[in-house]
Design brief:
five-stranded mixed sheet; binds adenosine-5'-diphosphate
């Protein structure tokens, strides 16, 4: 939170009173910017707005004296009865500008002056008329009440004015920030998606001026396929339930140009319980281009690597066969090591190629009928050399044959099993469970390893995502396996998920429909 304090000197009275204020007149005020919204700091205190005592009582003395002079003239000219009303004006003036004490002081002073006038009017007779006594007593009570009421009123008005002023300043600042942002389109829509405000950035990005878009529906910026999918309305609904929704999709400018955008919708529920939404759009064209270049590079590099790696593998196999009967044990040992490294390289290149295919949306499936129990057993057999101290336990079975791409499902199993071994260096067991539930089979791979912290569970299926371990180098990998596996399962219309607890191990699940559709 950014918090800033500053001196505040700007009220009507400031300009009237000017330099009579004491040094303590300035009020320390605070305002804060929290989560993008400027708000008033409630700790401000208007009572610090005090006049100099000289000025406060000075006003009372001047006001009462003026009232006395006017009264004196009236008494001398017409011998009128002492009019307390004029003194009451002096009390009002004093209480308003000088506060309750000045009001009371003016009341007392007025009574003294009234007595003085009374003696003048009654030719210095020392007896006081009881009627005059009662009137001055009533005037004293009136003065007291008026002073109290006026002081409270004045104080409330002062507070209200200050609060309003500060609020206006905050709003103005906030508006300026929002309106002048150029790199982001920031606008608001009402609960039905109709645009209610529009900043400069939105005008620059979309080509629409505020006059053209205010009151129109924000689906205006979506391409037709997104409108057909109902994306604008789905986003609003999600923001309404989750307070926020975010997507990356194309947006269309006034001139019809489509650009890749990141869009965040945040709901702001108003006091009347109607929803309003703020929408922030960022042009991601540049980043999208970079990603495209990176994807192209991965595709080209993996294709270029594939041929030499395959040739090297073939040559190594030939050499291994030739040296099989040789007495040169060292040559055989190194050729075997070379072969193992080439397998790893082939695996890596294949993964890179798969990632490119997934990105391009053309991963093909070769659907056949196969026995899942057999596939699990064969896959485990092929991995026996993976770890000296891990053993695999198979629990349950699947009763029917299923339809799917056997090699691709085998690839998923290999990924889950190698991960289970890799991420449980201090455990010795991996449990594979098979079961059938109606029209689908459920396979799980359970390990007793390092587990996955909660905040990463949803992210490990993302491309190139790896959990940051305290000792990251301990577990080699590129974060492609789970991304490819999840895509293979998705293409089979299956589901996948993980249950895990840090330091307690993980269980990776996937389900497959028995009949591929
Ligand atoms: P890689 O293992 O090559 O890094 P994966 O896509 O197979 O890539 O896995 C992604 C991330 O998920 C891994 O980096 C690891 O942090 C986490 N992970 C996967 N399997 C397990 C597991 N069995 N136990 C703990 N963490 C795992």
């Amino acid at each position: 939170m950014i918090t800033k304090a500053y001196s505040f000197v700007n009220t009507q009275q400031d300009s009237i009173i000017g330099s009579f204020f004491s040094g303590s007149r300035s009020v320390r005020r605070g305002f804060g910017v929290s989560q993008g919204i400027l708000r008033l700091n409630p700790s401000w205190n208007t009572r610090a707005f005090t006049y100099h005592p000289l000025l406060r009582y000075g006003i009372a003395v001047i006001a009462v004296n003026i009232a006395t002079i006017v009264n004196l003239l009236l008494v001398l000219a017409w011998g009128a009865e002492i009019p307390f009303l004029l003194f009451l004006s002096a009390v009002i003036l004093s209480a308003w500008f000088g506060g309750i004490r000045a009001g009371l002081f003016a009341t007392l002073l007025s009574i003294v002056m009234a007595y003085y006038l009374y003696f003048i009017a009654s030719n210095s007779s020392l007896t006081v008329n009881p009627h005059f006594l009662i009137r001055s007593l009533v005037f004293g009570i009136e003065g007291f009440l008026v002073s109290g009421v006026l002081y409270t009123m004045h104080d409330a008005i002062k507070k209200y004015t200050l609060k309003n002023h500060e609020l206006r300043k905050s709003e103005e600042r906030y508006r300026m920030v929002v309106e002048t942002v150029k790199d982001y389109a920031i606008y608001t829509v009402n609960s039905n998606g109709y645009i209610t405000s529009w900043n400069d950035g939105a005008a620059t990005m979309s080509g629409y001026s505020s006059q053209e878009v205010l009151g129109r529906h924000f689906s205006l910026f979506f391409p037709l396929d997104e409108i057909d999918k109902g994306s604008p309305w789905l986003m609003l609904r999600q923001a309404m339930t989750d307070a926020r929704s975010e997507i990356e999709c194309y947006q269309v400018t006034r001139g019809g140009r489509a650009f890749w955008a990141n869009m965040v919708i945040t709901s702001m529920q108003e006091a009347n319980s109607l929803y309003e939404f703020s929408i922030i759009v960022r042009d991601m064209t540049e980043r999208k281009e970079q990603e495209k270049r990176k994807d192209e590079f991965i595709t080209i590099a993996s294709h270029e690597l594939k041929t030499p790696v395959t040739s090297l593998k073939v040559f190594t196999q030939v050499l291994l066969r030739q040296y099989a009967q040789s007495v040169d044990k060292n040559a055989i040992k190194y050729l075997h090591k070379m072969d193992i490294q080439l397998d790893r390289l082939t695996h890596l290149v294949n993964d890179l190629l798969d990632v490119s295919k997934i990105q391009a949306g053309n991963i093909d499936l070769d659907i056949e009928d196969f026995d899942m129990n057999e596939l699990v057993r064969d896959t485990i057999d092929s991995l026996q050399g993976l770890s000296a101290h891990h053993h695999f336990v198979i629990r349950g079975n699947v009763l029917t044959r299923i339809k799917g791409d056997k090699d691709r499902i085998g690839q998923v199993l290999i990924n889950f099993l190698t991960n289970a071994v890799k991420y449980s260096p201090n455990a010795d067991e991996v449990v594979v469970s098979l079961s059938q539930d109606g029209e689908k089979v459920i396979i799980s791979v359970k390990d007793f390893g390092i587990g996955i912290p909660n905040e990463y569970k949803n992210r490990i299926f993302e491309r190139f995502f790896r959990v940051k371990h305290s000792d990251n180098n301990q577990f080699p990998g590129l974060g492609m396996g789970l991304f490819i596996s999840s895509e293979i399962i998705r293409r089979h219309n299956g589901a996948f998920w993980v249950e895990s607890e840090k330091d307690r191990g993980s269980t990776f699940y996937f389900t497959l429909p028995i009949q591929y559709e």
